Amino acid sequence: MLDLSGKTALVTGIANDRSIAWGIAQQLHQAGAKLGVTYLPDDRDRGKNKVTKLTADLSPSFVLPCDVQDDAQIDAMYAEIGKAWEKIDILVHCLAFAKKDELSGDFSNTSRDGFKLALDVSAFSLIRLCQGAKPMMTDGGSVITLTYIGGVKVVPNYNIMGIAKAALEMNVRYLAQEMGTQNVRVNGISAGPIRTLASSAVGDIHKMLHHFEEVAPLKRLVTQQEVGNIAAFLGSDLATAITGQIIYADCGYEIMGA
Hints:
Largest sheet: 7 strands, parallel
Structural class: alpha/beta
Strand order of the largest sheet: 3-2-1-4-5-6-7
Order of helices and strands: EHEHEHEHEHEHHE
Strand content: 5-15%
Radius of gyration: 17 Å
CATH topology: Rossmann fold
Oligomer: single chain
């Protein structure tokens, strides 16, 4: 079993118990990591209450608001983290968003504002979170993000999110080169489609899931726990020579021609 005892892990992007981020948080906790989690704030504290209740059994050191479109909020988050932890060992970035009406139909109908929003939340946020985490990653560490095959190949209806994931994957490489000087590794996990709240916004998602199960060599969908296992591995000392990589966790779908 992987041993992450003594390591701290900041996990972003938990929305509910179907989130890939939730699967990652569970596996990091099982491996012994000390967790801190964030939530997307709202006027009624629904996000805070939901994430606090969901993660209670994982005993996180903190549950903090983090709207990655707000630089002041990101700075405040890291200031609070600094009060709880001396360092960050693992940063998990599970953040992506696009307008639902731009995740179906013709890609050329993407709006300027929709393009900016998707790239800001889904790609730039990794850069900004790494900028804030760098001063606290004093003992090396691991940054892990989530991507999808739609960033390298055309997936019907994925549209603007495909562009955002392509940008995210290049962010991984540039950040790996930069942060490697302080022994911080940066990698992405390209997970196969999973039935989550986020994926439900993609047009014809059920057809996509069925096609995936038919084509993938393992003839099934990947699970949150399986993605979490890979994240735990990437955060561990077993992966100290791996950086700047996109690791496919998709039951082999990526190797197929259809």
